[in-house]
Amino acid sequence: FSRVSYDTMETTAGDGTWVDRVVWERESPSNTKKEEEERQELLTVVSWNVLAESYLTPRSHTHLPEDYQAVAFTPHERRRIVRRTLQHFQDILRVDVICLQELDEVLFDEVVSDGLSRQYKCVSTPTERRVDSCAIFYRHSKWQLQGPATIIQLD
Questions:
Q1: Positions of E strands within 15-119
Q2: How far apart are CA 24 and CA 108, in angstroms?
Q3: Residue 97 and residue 105: Cα distance in Å, rounded?
Q4: Which residues are registered as beta bridge partners of 47?
Q5: Furthest CA-CA distance within the chain
Q6: pTM (2 decimals)?
Q7: pLDDT tens figures, 33-56
Q8: N or C: lower Cβ tally within 10 Å for the chain?
Q9: Are strands 18-25 and 2-10 parallel, antiparallel or unpaired?
Q10: What is the mean pLDDT of the chain?
């Protein structure tokens, strides 16, 4: 595939969420406009560091504005917001691939897997010796996993 166009757009939610949109087209030339349209695929990807709860403490985030602290340091409130944001990605933006970083077990079990499991399949990194992992959710009605590859980065 070769990149055809790239732009950044603000979502209609008005919550400051932005989405990079890349339109991909197959490299082989087409003979007609219809063939060209059939070859064009829109792939939407969201990458989000949800920040594992074990890393989110008042001591580690001393410059966080006060009005955000009540939400950020209250696990059930934070999970509610993460759940709502993921539903927005899934139902409103209809994102094809959702990549989550610093996903801890509690957030995965209580928020993510329940909300996304209907329309998405998941590939995640192992959590050996870590409290968090990375996960890639892809819309299984449009995409098929050809084979996972795990890359372990020691940080």
A1: 18-25, 40-43, 45-49, 97-104
A2: 31
A3: 20
A4: 99
A5: 61
A6: 0.71
A7: 666 565 556 788 999 999 888 888
A8: C
A9: antiparallel
A10: 76
For residues 14-38, one letter each, b for 16 or more C-beta atoms within 10 angstroms of the residue's C-beta and e for the rest, the string is eeebeeeeeebbeeeeeeeeeeeee
Closest listed residue to residue 55, CA positions, set 125, 106, 104? 104
Q: Which amino acid is at 143?
A: W
- Which pLDDT value is given to residue 112? 79
Decide: 96 and 43 in contact? Cβ < 8 Å.
yes
Number of Cβ atoms within 10 Å of the Cβ of 148: 9
Place of tokens 């074990």: 54
In 3D space, the residue among 127, 86, 128, 87 whose CA is nearest the CA of residue 103 turns out to be 127
The dihedrals phi and psi of 32, each to the nearest 5 degrees, come to -125, 165
Q: Token digits for 76?
A: 């059930």
DSSP state of 108: I
> Any idea which residue has 């009605």 for tokens?
141
Exposed, middle or buried: residue 119 (CB in 10 Å: 0-12, 13-18, 19+)? middle
